[in-house]
Amino acid sequence: MLLVAGLVFTYYTTWAILLPFFDASSPIHNYFPAREWAIRLPAFVLVVGLSGIGFFVGSTIMKENRKKAQKAKLRAA
């Protein structure tokens, strides 16, 4: 996993930071998508990741509240 993370970091850094310094006719541009995706892709991943975390936290809170309500109902009975 560390190797994959290192490769992704190297690829993204080359794509987003170093690519503008190469001439537009350089063959290295063929290995990368358009630069606008260097912003869109991480933004999409961030939105999906935060939505997933929010969903998980929300569902966990709802389950805990149901358990507390059920315990309170059993105590009252």
Automatic annotation (TrEMBL):
**Pathway in which this enzyme or protein is active:** Protein modification; protein glycosylation
Q: How does it sit in the membrane?
A: Multi-pass membrane protein
Pfam families, per the entry:
DPM2
Instruction: Spell out where the chain crosses the membrane.
Output: 40-61
- Record carries keyword Transmembrane helix: yes
Which GO terms of the molecular function aspect are on file?
A: enzyme regulator activity
Q: Could you tell me the Gene Ontology terms of the biological process aspect for this record?
A: dolichol phosphate mannose biosynthetic process; GPI anchor biosynthetic process
Q: Which UniProt keywords apply?
A: Endoplasmic reticulum, Membrane, Transmembrane, Transmembrane helix
The record's listing under InterPro entries reads: DPM2
Q: Where found?
A: Endoplasmic reticulum membrane
Q: Which GO terms describe its cellular component?
A: dolichol-phosphate-mannose synthase complex; endoplasmic reticulum membrane
Describe its partners and assembly state.
Component of the dolichol-phosphate mannose (DPM) synthase complex.
So what does this one do?
Regulatory subunit of the dolichol-phosphate mannose (DPM) synthase complex; essential for the ER localization.
Q: Which family does it belong to?
A: Belongs to the DPM2 family.
- What is this protein's record name? Dolichol phosphate-mannose biosynthesis regulatory protein
What organism does this protein naturally occur in?
Suillus placidus
